[in-house]
Specification:
This protein is mainly alpha-helical. The chain is 57% helix and 0% strand. α1 packs across α3. It is elongated and about 45 Å long.
């Protein structure tokens, strides 16, 4: 799902703000996992079902390591700057879903 390139209302701007914050959290989580588990660097050339299991195993092992007080190999990086907005030729259904989310959750 993409943000609005030119938000035309306060609700669309709120959607964009929430989208950017959420994307930042997700990218940081992937960064933490990639620093801890080298298998996640680059392209994982396996069937999607197997990749899903590998990622799940990495998340479980990461959570266990945190629970047991293991330190990360590298400290967390500073918050990355969000990438510039690029308007993609998206699926009209996806745009309708984005508009519905905006209308229902950002009043």
């Amino acid at each position: 799902m993409t943000p609005y390139l030119h938000p035309g209302s306060p609700q669309q701007q709120m959607f964009n703000d929430a989208h950017a914050k959420t994307r930042n959290v997700i990218e940081r989580a992937f960064g933490v996992l990639k620093r801890r588990f080298h298998v996640l660097h680059g392209e994982v050339r396996m069937k999607p079902g197997k990749v899903t299991k590998i990622i799940l195993a990495c998340v479980v092992l990461h959570n266990l390591a945190k629970a047991w007080g293991e330190r990360e190999a590298f400290p967390e990086e500073e918050d990355p700057q969000p990438p510039p907005l690029v308007q993609l030729e998206g699926n009209p259904d996806g745009q309708a879903i984005r508009d519905a989310i905006t209308a229902n959750y950002f009043r």
